[in-house]
Predict the structure of Flap endonuclease 1.
Amino acid sequence: MGIHNLAKLIADFAPSAMKEQEMKSYFGRKIAIDASMCIYQFLIAVRSDGAQLANEDGEVTSHLVGLFYRTIRMIDNGIKPAYVFDGKPPDLKSGELVKRKERRQEAEKELEKAKEAGDTENVQKFERRLVRATPQHNEDCKKLLKLMGIPYVEAPGEAEAQCVALVNGDKVYGVGTEDMDALTFGTKVMLRQPHTSEAKKLPVQEYSFNKVLEGLNLSHEEFIDLCILMGCDYCGTIRGIGPKRAIELIQKHKNIEAVLENIDQKKYPPPEGWLFKQARELFKHPDVTPAEDIELKWTDPDEEGVVDFMCKRFGFNEERIRNGCQKLKKGRKGATQGRLDSFFTVVANKSSNKRKAEEMNGKKSKKAKGSFKKRK
DNA sequence: ACTCTGAGTCAAGACGGT
DNA sequence: ATAATTGACTCAGAGT
DNA sequence: ACCGTCC
């Protein structure tokens, strides 16, 4: 579940690390997005009378509805999304996954019960809890993105980590996510909910990694240890240590080893065989494809292809789909234009460097980060 | 009294006409 | 073959 | 801003 309470901790201890921006200020920006998470959310949220949208044959379309319109909305605002699909979860996560599986089986039983009792309210409740993105859903989305001219990346491991690699390798400006893990992986910039802002009139929250470290007065390594102490997906935590104590302890002792030496382990018992070192390694050197090996290209949509896929196969309204394709074409031109404009108008802005690097995509390849590829 | 943890529960999108 | 989320909120109870 | 509808 990401890092427990990290958003709150940053709000309390490093408030200047987050600034709120208008959606408009991201015109021309490239953003990396965890596709698997979006798909999951669409499958849960896009419903009618509690049931997912589907074509006549009963094939689910909720994920396609959501992805199609959200992507268009972003392009329409001059934001260029690149989607990242999950690969294999790291082995360290299996403990967490076992728990989730148990919860799932629990929900399945409850669902059966509710069905037999004819309790429609509970049936819906537990059906939602059982939702998951299948390989088929993922394939549908990849196909749609390809036809729309939107790039995507297949990550070897966690999508979130791959997004961060794209940011820090200057392929995109930031990660667009709800998941605070991105900061633990060290993303220079993280944007929360860059898509809903306009619909709900909420500003985009932009987190700066350097300012987080500054505000908390920690190095990246110390920050990773802090996140582990607060609770991540990869290992347990010390009972009795939450955000407040965790930050105090890390600021004082600098790392988990030293914390362990300085606390009363009877009062604060660490987990048996605690794998915090492995978790730390995972955050430091996640299994990702190096950014310089990835090329992201946004192109005009293949309108006939999109219509064929969405309308013929999935029964979407052709007028709406064509309308969307037009927006994609228009938005693309606008974004190219806008990026140049803002380059000249935002003269004294530090971020113009960043912007430049983003533009130069891969020309000067970064120094290789040692070969820490994970093998399993 | 106050602070904090940790367990459990919940809800989750976007469009277009009015 | 097979899997597959997350954050916000509340509340009880333990610790300081 | 609300609400029925999207498929």
Remarks:
- Residues 1-2, 4-5, 7-8, 34, 36-37, 39-41, 44, 86, 88-89, 97, 100-101, 132-135, 138, 178-180, 233, 240, 267 of chain A lie near DNA strand C (CB under 10 Å from a C1').
- The longest strand of chain A covers residues 80-85.
